[in-house]
Each structure stands twice: as C-alpha cells, then as structure tokens.
C-alpha cells in the first residue's frame, strides 16, 4: 500500500496522502492546500475524503479549504462537534478510497474526539495506522490541552482515557503495522518524541515508555504528566478555529499582501497599534531594525515561536521581510492562525534605511569576547534556553529565563547594568533581545553562536542546576 508522508519541518508536522484507483484521501492537512491538490492531480485522482484525527491545537488545518476546492468530505471521529458540514464517524466505520479501506478506531485521550485510522490495502490486509496525536514515535500525545477549551476535562481524566485507548485499541493490533503519527521531534504536542517519523507498532511496544505492558494506569498517568511544560498560548485559539471554522487562506493572503511605502508603513504602525514583526535573520536584524519591531526569523521554527511570543492570534501585524519573502511569512503565520497581517514594508528594511529613517541595533559579541567579558565580570549573563537545556549544562552564574516566559519575568532584567543574552545557537536570544529593546532596555549584547560557541571556550560551565535559576 502506498502511503506518502508530507512533512513540514518548522511545525514538525506530518500529513498523509493515499491514492487508489483514481480516488485519494488526505489526513491532517496544513492550511495551504495547493500542494495536496497538485499531488492528487499528478495521479489524475479526485480527493474524496479529508480525515481529521482530532481538532488540532498547534496548527490550523486545511480541511475546510480542501472541502471548498475539491468537494471532499471532511471526516472526524466519534464525539466531534464541528461547526460546519462534516461526517462524524462511528467507531469501526469503514470508508472506501478506491480499492483501499480506512477504518475508524476511536482513541480518546489526547482529546475526546481523537481517532486513529487503520489503513487497509487492496487485498484486505491491514497496513498501518494514522495515529494523529494519540501515538507518536517514542511518545504519546499530551493530555492537558483539551482542558484549556473544556474546563472539566482534566489532564488526569484524559490521561486515563489515553491509557485505555492505547491498551484496548492500539496495543492489541499487529506488530507489523506501520505507525504514521501527526508529529515528530520538536513539536509541543508531546515531550520526548523521536526524530524518526514512522516505525512499526511492534518496535514501539518494545521502546515507547507509554506502551510498557506491565504499566498500571496510575503509573501511566503519573509518568505522562511528569515534566509537561505549559503549552503555547495560541493552542486553545487554534483549537477553536478548527472547531468553529475560519476564513479561507485566499482571503487572508489577499488582505495581507499589501505593500506599504515607508511613510504608509510608519502611519499604519502609529494608527493601528499593529505589531511590527521583522522576519530577517539574527545577523541582519542586529545591524539595524525599525524601532519597536521584534525579530522572529523565518529560517528557524518561525510559526512555533510566533505562537509562543504573540499572545493573541487576532493581533494585527505589520511585516518586515527580505524582499520577496513576504508571501512565505504570511503563509507560515496563517498556519498557526495569525490571519491579521495588514501589510508589509515594501522593499524591506533597506527602503527604511534609504529614507534615512531612525533605526535601532543590537550589539553582538563572539565566544572569545564573551569569555573575556565573563572573566572581567563585566555583565550579567542570561540564558534563554529551555530549563531542561540549562540544567544539562550552562555557564556558571548564568540566570535562566526561558524565552517563552520572558514577558512574565521582565523585572528580572536590570536596566542599569549591561546584559549578555545567549541561547543554544543565537536564534532565540535575538528574539529576546528584540523584545527587551522594544520594552526599553539598552545595554544588551547578544552572543553569536550561543552556547554551542561558548562551549568551545574555557568559560566555566556546570552540569548542575545553578542557584541563580529563576524558573
């Protein structure tokens, strides 16, 4: 059976495509649907179904636009209550796609409507399971997201449901089945996913901590809930968009692709209260940027960090990109529901500087300069990596404020002393630098290459949690 995984690295997201005898189906598509339609066109196939494993939290699905463009029927598992036309399937229901079959297996736990789809080939042989966020490679879905939408669905209740789903619905299946999850390493929908994006169910039974045969429900719940970090604030907002519906991507793109002259851009920023988002890389941003803009570079996990750092998906946004990159930025923002881009600076930052407009910059130092500054005790060192990264190894005396919590801990950063910021490689620390600059901090220096570069120097480092850890 031919199953094509369509993987998008910046969201660690996997959609799936199957085709048989002129009929096709898509599982958990992203919002930009043209690639899926083009894929079906190459096979001279009609997309018959769009299967959704659950109401996603970390991205806005493309199911509605696929339905609009292709006439495909949207399918959810039992108990789903979408605010638009869709099939809410019964447990065990079978859908025909050409000579293939797709069987519904209701697996509540990550969310109550979470569903696994069994793929059955033209010979009637069970081939694999599209598991959504129920089962990952090396992990299972976190059970604490639905409670942000429905309060009485506690994480303990959902974890219990997930235990039952895995034991009663997934683990009895054949070891030969291929597991096709919705996410890989880097997604915030789990805590310890493998870099591998498929595996056999048999191997997962041997290696996945959550599938240990001798684990009690109490042990499962405790282990699953231990170490969960706070989910990004945009997650419940995306869930509601996926439940209730949303504007078509074409409408969003048409509104956002509005080139603004320097004067028009400045006026829009002053009049609308829009957030100015600069998507250039850290090096170029540091040399010069529009005052009060923040930096989240397109070359990194852009959509994820936008979701982490911009609290509301309804926030109006003005874009500053490299010329020609505005459409990519708008598309990647829309993947996580940030649909209110109202325009972009025509010509990019160069047009701003060409007009002799005022701009800001961020000082940077390399690892050798950092070592000298550290030895001379010239600045406070702030490490904006995750707590787990910090705990594994860090500069002695550094203060840990994870980037996604910086807005709640601004008071920890003195304004009357020099500050040095670093992350692992320089991407996150420039985001942090831009936020502090926007909020009035001036004595900031960013470390080029981050901790990876610092690790090559003689700066004292500790493998134990430092008492100056704040979070």
Write up this protein.
This protein has helices at residues 34-42, 63-70, 155-170, 201-207, 217-225, 235-244, 249-256, 262-272, 282-287, 302-309, 326-335, 348-354, 367-375, 387-392, 427-438, 450-454; strands at 3-8, 13-20, 23-27, 46-51, 73-76, 87-88, 94-97, 100-106, 115-120, 126-132, 178-181, 199-200, 259-260, 275-278, 294-295, 317-320, 341-345, 363-365, 380-383, 394-395, 399-400, 419-422, 444-447, 461-462. The protein has a six-stranded mixed sheet with strand order 1-2-3-4-5-6, with helices on one face. The chain contains 16 helices and 24 strands. It folds into three domains: 3-238, 4-Layer Sandwich (Metallo-beta-lactamase, Chain A); 247-354, Rhodanese-like domain (Oxidized Rhodanese, domain 1, 3-Layer(aba) Sandwich); 363-462, Rhodanese-like domain (Oxidized Rhodanese, domain 1). Strand 14 (275-278), helix 9 and strand 15 (294-295) form a beta-alpha-beta unit. By secondary structure, it is an alpha/beta fold.
Give the count of helical stretches. 16
| Structural domain count | 3
CATH superfamily of the largest domain: Ribonuclease Z/Hydroxyacylglutathione hydrolase-like
The counted number of beta strands is 24
Notable traits:
471 residues, alpha/beta, Metallo-beta-lactamase, Chain A, Oxidized Rhodanese, domain 1, 3 domains, six-stranded mixed sheet, 16 helices, globular, RibonucZ/Hydroxyglut_hydro, Rhodanese-like_dom
Can I get a quick summary?
With 471 residues, the chain is an alpha/beta fold. The chain contains 16 helices and 24 strands.
